[in-house]
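pinning this so it doesn't scroll away 📌
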Amino acid sequence: MIEIDGSHGEGGGQILRSSLALALLTGRAVRLVRIRANRPKPGLAAQHLTSVRAAARVGSAHVTGDALGSRELTFEPGPVAPGHYRFDIGTAGAIGLVLQTVHLPLALAGGGSTTVEVTGGTHVKKAPSTSFLDATWRAWMARLGLSLSLEVQRTGFFPRGGGHVTMKVQPAEAPEALSIAAAAEPGRSVSGFAAVAGLPEDIAARMAQRAEQRLRDAGIRASLNVEVWPGGPGAVLALTEGSERVPALFLGLGERGKPAERVADEAVDALLAHRAAGGGVDEHTADQLVLPLAFARGASAYPVARVTQHLLTNVDTVRRFVERDVRVEGEEGAPGRVTIGA
């Protein structure tokens, strides 16, 4: 049994989710201690507990410690089985984190396709939104030969939640290796949307106007759709940075008391920072590629826009389960490069 210290590195929920996926992929049992020790509220929150129970269900695992607030967990996996699964986080916890936990084990399980339905939050702070998953993460997975689809039946924001997303996963024998020599040149234009749910449409128009003006000032053409979604309340602005490879999506998220212009600035600042860093794989994708590429046939290498603690922590977690040479070149906070040996 592998023991993982949840306080290591960034000390958040990513260690838990990666460990669950790796246990399912390798068949190795894992014991996690000090789960989310570096967070204001340590232990399993609702979205982490749902990830544990989702991994246990798809992998017929024996689990101890799966309770809200638990800081220790033992997970002994069984065989992963394709099928139709439904999970309810019960709060506005991030749907995307649950989907990412079970995606790769289900894709490589063999057999038929799988459908996973999750209810919770689609656009919440400090977690990948379903907009990002659909535009960027799904495209990178397709680049690795891992085909999946995402359908958002209903959006869900903090604190109400209530979002509903369906992921369909197609089986694959193994991920394809990835070799990118240099960062991609940024596109000359940016697309995206400004959306509100349960709020006045003029808020979305203000977000779009602010983002388009700032991007014009930076010499970037922008074309943003103004959208009104059911449900809510919530507001979001997304900018998609096109390239000849995979689009990167940068998001600004509304919250109570936050002006529309600040939501737009959040997304624009993230996009401009990415360009200034040289345009490697965006920092939110960089750590998510390590796990599938650790199971690819052949060596991989790719540049990253910024070396983050999330990336370094995920590399350390993967090394505990998989005997491959995984390295990160570059200083934390600066551009770098990830290499994964054959």
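📌 and the second one:
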Amino acid sequence: MQVIKRSGEREEFDPNKTISAIVRAGVPKDEATRIVQVLEPQLYDGITTEEIYRQVHQMLKGHNAAHYGLKKALLRLGPEGENFETYIARLFQAEGYLTKTRQILNGKCVKHEVDVLLARGREKAMVECKFHNDLGLKCNIQIALYVYARFLDLRDTEMLTKPILVTNTRLSLDAQRYANCVGMKVLGWKTPQENGIESLASKHRVFPLTMLEMRHRDQITLLENHFILVNDVLSRSREVYLLLSKDSAEDIISQAMELMST
């Protein structure tokens, strides 16, 4: 049986991949295996990975469903890229960096707006965030070339030590090879393989606000008021009550407490 990926590619259905994805959401392996066993009779040749994701998400509950939905949660930070840039800055803060977002810097030839500027010890890096509104899209070689060219223009004038390319999806093989060749760090979904954006989010418990279930208008209200992380809901709970209805605020805060306590 073949499945259709978000990119349009077809591949043989591998139940182990689905089991692994569910396990990463915090579900014990035997329970994840049981879920896939229940799911398999409902699958058919040509089913999309999106439909498989939807069915699994319906079977999960509470914090497990939220963790499983991290990739979609990052997507819901859009459609513009600013919320994603702020989220990445908060993720790097958890790694011990001082961060500034959307800085205008003088290059040797022209000025550049840098999405995130990082500093830690002698390290000073520029981060270029590429946000995709389609999970099937990848950062290609042109984007990698563009980011490194900007770094070369800024390197000497701003005393930068390295460039970093970050995306909410994946990178093409050529983009990864080029980045590795020139010494440019990349961060994306499962990139690097064992330390991608999903791994860092789980390691530091830096989860986007959009992992919580809420009405779209409430989500927009919170994002517009600079609530980026689930933890922001807890640390600024009084503001949540001021911005939203009492019922909505209580439900969102309850979800945040459950997710952050597990």
